[in-house]
Amino acid sequence: AAGVALVRAVPGALPIALGGGCFANPLLVEGILGALGDRAVYVPRSVPAGDGGLALGQVWIAAEGASLCV
Prior knowledge:
Helix content is 53%, strand content 6%. By secondary structure, the chain is mainly alpha-helical. It is globular and about 35 Å long.
C-alpha cells in the first residue's frame, strides 16, 4: 500500500505497467487500480501476467533495440 501511495504521489509520471505472476490475481489488480485512481495503468490481457509475458516483453524490447541499431 505504501508503494502504491508513493507512485500515485509523483506528479506528471509516466503510465504504469503491471507485470509478474502476482497480477494474475484479480483482487490484487482491482485493488491497485482503485488505489491509483486516474493514473494510466497497463494490465496484461493478451499475454500471461507471469514469466511468459515478461519474457515476451523482453524479446520485443530486444527486437526494437536491434532494429534501431540498423
